[in-house]
Amino acid sequence: MKPQDDQSLLRSDRREVISSSVGVSRSIRLARLFARAALPAALIMWMLSLRNVNVLGMGVFGLVEILPVAFWVAAALLTFGFCAALFDRRTGDRLYAGYVLALIAMLHATVPIVYGHLSDNWAWKHVSMIDVLLRVGELPIVHDRGLDLYNQWPGFFALNAVVVEATGIDSALSYAAWGPAVADALLLGPLIILYRSFSRSRRLSWAAAWVFYTCLWVTQDYFAPQTLTFLLYVTVLAVVVRRVPRSRGTPSIARGEAARRPSIGWTLLVLSIVAAITCSHPLTPVMLIITLAALAVPRRNRRTVLPILLGTVVLNLAWDLTVARPFFSANVRDMVQGLTQPESNASAGLLDLASATDAQVLVAWTDRALSGSVWLLAAAALVFRPSLRRTPLPLLAGAPLVLLTLNSYDGEMLFRAYMFSLPAMAFGATALLAVARPRRWARRLVLPVALPALFVGFTICYFCNPDGATALYFTRSEVAASRWLFDHAPRGAVVAAVTEDVPAGYTDYDRYPSVWIELQEEPVKKRFATDPAGTLGSLVADRKGPVYLMLNRAQEGRIRATGLIPMSLKKIDNMIAGHPGFRVVFQNKDAKVYLFTPTKSREG
């Protein structure tokens, strides 16, 4: 080949390289502009989309079927804008944080904005606990297992009582509806600290945070003690993992501090967080002990982890043997029995799809797909990303699964174990999705396909209520009926309902004993469906005060979706309306309040 031919080929190659680099540079500039414009545009569109949403139009699929098209367009704009930010290596933490906080707002602020008030009946219950604590100065013992449990782990309620008194507001009801959004926003800081301990990559850490929030479908972030203690749990792990020494030979993993014994001040600070967990929730301290024990397995971690682990064990034992001793004394037999049933513990809580409704089947398969995907991807990441095996990630992901075999936790252990393992699982799954591919175009398509799919999956699991969409939302008429009841019922009156789906149903629970048909034994529930007067009379036979029975729209939705009792609430209402022992004392379009006067059934 002639020299001039070589030179022409060289010039041609240079032109191709320059052209390619110019093309890449142009793509990066376009991605950068789109990422900066998409965030405010998505937020504006999201807020505008929530105006005039007809909540009463909800069917079996909940909010998913009534949210306008503009909401989904805003979600798509936010997701693809975040993908564009990930494409640009120069994207800063502020923009990433803006996107993830906007994601949290879309996922968790949509419900309180659309509903206009607190909706979850468990959150209403916790607000009532705080109100009683502020009035009495303690959580009274009423010999109800479900309520006395709060007396033995009062940390969450005491903290909120301090907030209410310090701010001068009337009740925690003023802010409880925003609990999920606030808690998840506060969780972001510890989560990023934890992820920066696994990798120095900004993009990987923030992408993992996005995956975490879109896979946190278990609805355990409402206004509850579990929400607070999960936040503190991740905080403890973040500061401990950040301090443990790193194994050598992991250049892609962030370097921690040199191995040295932690200071007394640092240890006391971490243990103060552990103390807050210990006095607020029964399960989270056990999860923390198991996870810290797993972290202490590698010898290099023990100097940092063992003082915290030993302190956590001592604090937990001290609390359980004193304040929480009544609970453990009453339930020790069930706990021991649970140790002998590992298979049933692990499968407890799974829905029987053979008898499920279409909405329940959709939600069940979606949450199983989300959970299974993140677990499988995280496991695969440990195979294809060897550097992750030299981090605490496998220990953090696997430790919570141990409790699956030890106790069913009333059918919720599977979901709690998933939640506690999710911070590590989400990072592992993201590390696999973001790993370089032989073909650059394939790598660029992975996250733009995966992240929108995760968003849609989350909304199906979180915005649909498999137990009935109407049970998830209380109308203003239902709230008005409940307020009338507690304003007019004399002290000592019994408050009864078919299900617990009564707004503020535990108001002044130390003054108003309650009877919930759904919590009774199966024969009692079946009898109530055919003889409501006789059944209710026998349940309140030892009570001296008047008895009020409230029937409302949310209860009807729960019964229709779950079959808690073998008859619709409407038919039960018809039987009650024709019985001389029941008299309507309040009624609006969504609720009725009956005054029940038992006769022979009460005497029996």
From TrEMBL:
The keyword Membrane is annotated on this UniProt entry: yes
Keywords: Membrane, Transmembrane, Transmembrane helix
Keyword Transmembrane helix: yes
Ranges that cross the membrane: 33-49, 69-87, 99-118, 175-195, 226-245, 266-296, 308-328, 415-436, 445-463
Entry protein name: Uncharacterized protein
Taxonomic lineage of the native organism: Bacteria, Bacillati, Actinomycetota, Actinomycetes, Kitasatosporales
